[in-house]
Structure formats: C-alpha cells, structure tokens
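Shipment paperwork, digital attachment
Item: protein structure file
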Amino acid sequence: MKKQMVWVLWIALLIAVFGGQLSAQEGPLVTRWADDVSPDHALPEYPRPSMVRDDWLNLNGLWDYALTAPDAATPESYQGDILVPFPIESYLSGVQARVNDEALWYRRTFTVPETWTDHVLLHFGAVDWEATVWLNGVELGTHRGGYDAFSFDLTDALAEDGEQELIVRVLDPTDSGAQPRGKQIRDPQSIWYTPTTGIWQTVWLEPVPDTAIHTLKLTPNLDDSHVEVIVEVAGAMDGSSLRAVVMDDETEVATAQTAEPDAGQFVLSLPIESPELWSPDSPFLYDVQIDLLDKDGGVVDTVSSYFGMRKISLERDGNDEWRLFLNGEPLFQYGLLDQGFWPDGLYTAPTDEALRYDIEATKQLGFNTIRKHVKVEPERWYYWADRLGVLVWQDMPGAFMTSVDPFSHDDASAAQFEQEMQRMVEGLYNHPSIVMWVPFNEGWGQYDTVRISDWVAELDPTRLVNNASGWTDAGAGDVLDMHAYPGPDAPPTDPDRASVLGEFGGLGLPLSGHTWQTEANWGYRDYTNAEAMLTAYTELISHLRELIEKRGLAAAIYTQTTDVEIEVNGMMTYDRDIIKMDVDAVASVNQALYEPVPQRYTFVPTSEVEGVNWLVTNEMPDASWSDVEFDDGAWVSQAGGFGFSTEPSSMVRTEWQQPQIWLRQIFTVSADEVGAYDLYLRVHHIEDAEVFLNGVSIARLPLSTTGYVELPVSDSDGTLLHIGENVLAVHAYQPSFAPPVGPLKQYIDVGLYGLERIEP
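Attachment content:
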C-alpha cells in the first residue's frame, strides 16, 4: 500500500508540474499490475535469462528527459522525470507525450560498485529507434534498430570515482521512415496503434573480466542426442579453455572441456543420453553452466543458461499430407495472434508477472502456440514461453511502410531490415519455444522474398520459415500461409510445403469499462454477449477440424490474445481484466483440434492437381444414367475439370459451354472398405449441380461455390457403397442468370473421399 501511495503521489506531482500532460488520454485504461510499478520497482528482474551472470546493476527508474529539435545540442536543462523503461507515450512513463520529429533526451547518474575493477558493460534491452549514448561527455556510439539488444563498454569513459553521467539521445521516425516498426503509427487507427519512442526495455550494467564470454549459442540435436555449445570470447584467449556442465536439477548429466578454439570460438558437443524432451505438454529444460578457464585452470568468467531438447520439422503424415512435426510426431499448432501491446505501457509490459500472465492465459484456453505478431519482445517473454511451454512463431516487424509508398524500399532500407532481422534471429536463437521465423506479413514492405526466406533458413537451419504470412506467398519456405476473416479456410495443396492458416477469427466483443475508447470499437464480427461469441467460436473450430482432416491444414492462428486499442477481438480485454468466454469451455472446444487425424481414403479424386478422366455426355440420357449397370459405351472420356473461362485457366482441362453436362466415374470398392469410412464430397461448381452415388442422390448443389468445398455424405448405416463396382455420377447446369464475376463462367469438378471411422 505504501508503494502504491508513493507512485500515486509521484504521478500527481508530474501532473501538477506539466500542466496535465498525463491526461492526454482522458481516463486512461490500466492493468491491475500498474499498482505494482513505482520508481524503485520498474521491471527489476534480470533481463537476459539465456546468459546469466550473478553480478549486475539495474538502471531502470527515474531519469531526466527533454524534447528538443532533432539537431539540437545536449540540453542544458531537462523538462522533468520519466520512468524508464516505459516509452514516453505511455501512461506508466509518467509523461504520456507524443514525440513526432523531435529528439528525445535521457539523463541519469549512477555509481559503479567498488568491487567492479575490470570492464563495465552498459546494456540496453531495446531502444526505438536510433540511440546515441554518451558517458561523462564521451560519445560511446550510435545504435539503429528498435527491437534488439545492444551494449557499450564503458570502461575507458568512466570517471575514477563518484557519480557517472549517462546521456542518451533518441530519434524515431515511426511511420515517416522506412525502418522496421511493426504496427506503430503517429495517427493510430484501425489495425495501427500508438507508437513507442525511446527506451522501452531494461537498461543495466554488468562487470566482466578482461577476457570474457561474449556470446553463447546452444543447439540441441535430437537425432544424435547431444547439445552443441559454441562460445565466442572477448579479449585475449592465450591458454584459455572452456568447460561446460549440463545439469538436470542437481544431477550432472554431461560435462566437456576444450582448450582448442576454432576460428575464435570454442565448440563443445555434450551427449545427452535418453534425453527428456521439451514440448508444450512437458516443457523440460536442462541447465548448463559455462566456465572460461585461464591457462592454470582457474575460472575467469562464468555464465549460466538452459536449453530444451526438441526438434521441429516438416514431414508427411499417414495421409501423405505435409504436417508440422515436434520431436518426430505430428502436432497441430493452434495459437493466438499476440501483438504485445499494453494500455498502460504500450510496448512495455508493466511487470514481469504481467508478461508471464498472457502466456499462462493462452495455455489455459487450450492453445499450444503463439504467433508473436510484428513485434519482438524482451527476452524474459521468451524465457516464460520456454518455461511454461508454448510454441512461438516469431514475426519480423514490418518495414518500408512510408507515407509516400507503403511498399517502397531502397538499398539502405533493405540493408537495415536485414541487419535487424539477423540480430533478431541470432539474439533469440537459444530459445526452444521458437519454432518458426516469419519475415513478412501481408506484403508490408515485402521484397526479394525467396532470397530472404532462403537466407533466414541458412541463418537458422534448426527452425522452419514462413516466407510470407497472408496473401503474398512467393513459393519459398516451409509453409503456404493464408489469412481468412472470419474464416476458417485452408490454402490449396502445395507439393512441397505444409498448409497453414496464419490468421482467422477476430470475433469481437466490447466490454464496457474495459475498452480503449467508449465507442467506435470494432471486431471482424461483433457480438453482444459472451454466450453468442462462444457459439460462433465453437462453429469456427468445428469447421477448422474439418480442414485438418479433409484438406491437410497443419496449423492455425486465431486473432487474437487481447483487445488492442480500438480492436475488440481479443480473447481478453485490453486491460487483461476479463477473459471474455468461459475458459474451460474454450479449452474443451480447442481440444478437438489435437485429436489424431483419421486415415483419409480417396475413392474418386478431384482434378485439382491432375486431370481425372470421366465419361461425359451433353445429351440428356435416360433415367437410369446414374446406375452402375447403365450402358455408357457411347459417352466420351474427357479430363476434368469441366468449364469455360474467359482467360487461360489450369483448372479447365475440358471446355464445357453447353447448357448441361452429365458425368460418370466407375470405381471399385473392397469388402474391407464398405462401411469403414465417413464419406464426403469435395466440389467446386458453377452453377447448379446434383451428385449421385450408385443411383442415389447424395447432394443437391444450388448456385455456385467460390472454390472447392467439402460436403458430408449421409451414410450412417454404411450401405451407399457396394462391394465391387460403384459409380459416382454428376449432373451440372450452365448458369441460368448472369455469370459470376471473374473469368471462370461455368465449372464442375467433384471428388469422393472417406475418413476412417474411429470407434470412441
């Protein structure tokens, strides 16, 4: 309570000093964790859990700030206090001001602990976007990039004793520049949100020896049951050696030591016998300690980390469909689109507990995956994903979206994009939760897609690559991704890649008192109560299961984890106060997506991939034309699909412009197959059609479809199919009114399939 009162008084003081600047957003929406934030308690947790040293100093807290012209000199005076690491636009910063084209300056002092006698490193988790840093008047350097960590060695600029003055200047073009920025925009609207400028992740100091561990790369190899450890060292390596010890709790699993650096790196391979695997259901992690030793065997530097033994791969299942495999088994990846925005901290979660909560809620709702959407999180978010067990698709924040041309780029902006992407891939490499990289989304700034996709795969061959999520696929990478709102839908079958639904859903439900603004909020489909939303969601998941079984869909991402500003299509409200639908009900509905996929059998294939020959006539046959015994000797054999297009179309293999067409397909069924499958049709028709099986009408198809659809065939007693010869017969009509929009004016293609009946 005392901490909360200090925070409230500090906010009140700032309001008085800055003339109500904090009320730029009237009645700000805040999370319950805002009460836990104060100048002496601003994200105090260790910020780099993938490479931990015991000694460090957190510089989060109150800094001086000033806004000046972009080319102004260092300010002689500052405008007030800002709470780092919350962006200046956020409520929790204590400022809540927009920056636009100004320079944002930060200043603070600190004292180096007396025990730190070697090198001192200054670390920034992330600063958006260009940061220039001075210590005691000495310029340390400039970093460009809003999402990756960077460091400076302060040693030579440190005063001998007493306070050290640290100054940071930030320039951030937001949407007036071509740098990666995700969904930040100066005029927030629709799917574009309030920008983040300046320091938005933890700033901290760390002492290191003259010769120190600089980088650590851990690669689990499940096929050969070992983990590879690669360490880069800063400083002289003469006589140095490296020791690695893998632990399972207090039990030593493996140890190795090397004294032979390879191209400036130490490389160790440690066997992990009978490894315990990492998965969402069992996120087991091994601990590892790395010791850098001097020529006498004394420990010079020590870091600790962890890793998970897991393998992500693209393989075919029993139906010969491409699936996403985890640890050698197919696993449907079903996740939430997670944008990582907070009403009180914008890009910065108010507390570590809040950061963890979103992942916990995702798992409670029955999802096993998160697509981190056009944002890179602080490393502690990935730490919690590793610990709690969730698969992560990591987007690269979009770039090249300028007011002149939203898809423009030049050599400089392309180089910047690739530099920032490489930093993201290398910086997050050690986290087992990440299973897929997503370079581009919906064409935003997309360029050289095949090259970029191949390059990312070379940077990290242990994970999959989604070349472009949305509608701008370039035929590269491991998956073919589409978006469908509300959907669901599945991409067409690809011979070399898995089909995934990168975004769908977006069911909206605004809850009064928990929205960014009182009115004019939106979702892709709006509902007025949780019950109606749950009914609609249940229907979506039922259709999604059909796509898994019948069209080989390997993964899907539902939009989204929380409401974000005026979007109200979250599973949770923006303030995380309410999970909108019943948690247990959603988890139960989602469970159906993870059930084993039944064996699929093809009785009569469609002509989507390869033309299937049918017996055809355009002359009206007699009434028995749909029976097996009918004499079709005068009919002509032609390849499907049948239709007419005003433009060349690979779908139309036999032209059909007559008013009607009759088709027959004879196929053979064994005794084991009769009654063993739930039958369904896969059909694309323009316009009316009727389908018969052994003389029985099994589907009347009015009007048209925009593509192929699956239709169940009622055969509960298993009598439609006969042992021996069977016939699938189709009667289709030319459109009776105006033809549909588009080049394809009439069309018919039909296939008959079955899903193996699984006894409960």
